[in-house]
Amino acid sequence: MDFSQNEICRLFGIQFPVVQGGMVWASGWRLASAVSNAGGLGLLGSGSMKPELLEEHIDKTVVATSRPFGVNIPLAGTYGAAHVDVCLQKKVKIVFTAAGSPKIHTPRLKEAGVTVVHVVPNALLAKKAEACGCDAVVAEGTEAGGHNGREGLTSLVMWPSVADAVSIPMIAAGGIGDGRAMRAAFILGAKGVQLGTRFAATVESTAHLKYKEACVQADGGQARIYNLQHMPIRSLMNDYVKEFCSLEAAGTPVEELQRLRGKGRSQKGVFEGDVNQGELVAGQICERIKDIPTVQELMTRLLDGFERAAVSISAR
């Protein structure tokens, strides 16, 4: 299929308007390069990396693919500013920012010729991202895994609102795992899609096999939002999350809850495979994940499904 005139493909210089989310502990150089080699845009998830490790992953990605790739940077993270410096030093051409204000770093990234995309949870913040010079926005609905906006806007509500609010292209995220969902996002105003959990459960993902199997086995109600008092997170229910939710419902002070969560819960769950006491960040799309394919297999299915969905619509 021909996406040569698609705004996202032209913006990034890619073949298909499909972006792989920069997920912590899952999005290393193997996954990012595999997605880029398959015609999409692979992103390194810097949120789980120290600056020197990010440098290593950038170098390995450059060797593994000749196609465009980018880096996802949680700006409010410990190394947010340092990761921006690394991207500038390594001449990374595409940077996705999240979890913080894009005002601080976007000007110097743009001055260096970097294409900047910011992840937003609503139309108001999308307009602010556009105003500070971002080239596109990722509109992520509450169905997504990991950190979520406090408003809890669903993708079906937010995507058209963001598309109408800004003139820069919108990349839809949150609940996308197959071609039908991709087609629906385009109908609602998206120019591209970003998939997180679905790419985390692929062969090339650096997530632990037990985490991937947990995603495959999860039912529709298992990916829940918790940590509501501090920073909402969508994760698969397990012994740890159940204990946290019980304490949260009992009115346990935020400080105690954050001590329980600690600093290594997502590493323990996603990277180390502790499915009982780790944080298994994942989106509601787990309901639709039935296997662990290679990136190329997933991309082929996604695009085939996108085409079939158009035929289905036209036949009605």
CATH topology of the largest domain: TIM Barrel
Count of the separate structural domains: 2
Order of helices and strands: HEHEHEHEHEHEEHEHEHHEEHHHH
Architecture (CATH level 2) name of the largest domain: Alpha-Beta Barrel
Let me know the number of strands: 11
Q: What's the helix and strand layout?
A:
Layout: H1 7-12, E1 18-20, H2 29-37, E2 42-45, H3 51-64, E3 69-74, H4 80-89, E4 94-98, H5 106-111, E5 115-120, H6 123-131, E6 136-140, E7 146-147, H7 155-165, E8 170-173, H8 179-187, E9 192-195, H9 197-200, H10 209-217, E10 223-226, E11 233-236, H11 239-249, H12 254-261, H13 265-271, H14 295-314
Parallel strand pairs: 1-9, 2-3, 3-4, 4-5, 5-6, 6-8, 8-9
Antiparallel strand pairs: 7-11, 10-11
Give a quick precis of the structure.
The chain has 316 residues and is an alpha/beta fold. It is built from 14 helices and eleven strands. Helix 5 (106-111) links the parallel strand 4 (94-98) and strand 5 (115-120).
Task: Describe what this molecule looks like in 3D.
The protein has helices spanning 7-12, 29-37, 51-64, 80-89, 106-111, 123-131, 155-165, 179-187, 197-200, 209-217, 239-249, 254-261, 265-271, 295-314; strands spanning 18-20, 42-45, 69-74, 94-98, 115-120, 136-140, 146-147, 170-173, 192-195, 223-226, 233-236. With 316 residues, it is an alpha/beta fold. The protein folds into two domains: 7-206 and 291-314, Alpha-Beta Barrel (TIM Barrel); 209-285, no CATH class. The strands form two sheets. An eight-stranded parallel beta sheet has the order 1-9-8-6-5-4-3-2. A three-stranded antiparallel beta sheet has the order 7-11-10, with helices on one face. The longest helix has 20 residues, at 295-314. 51% of the residues are buried. The model has no long low-confidence stretch (mean pLDDT 94).
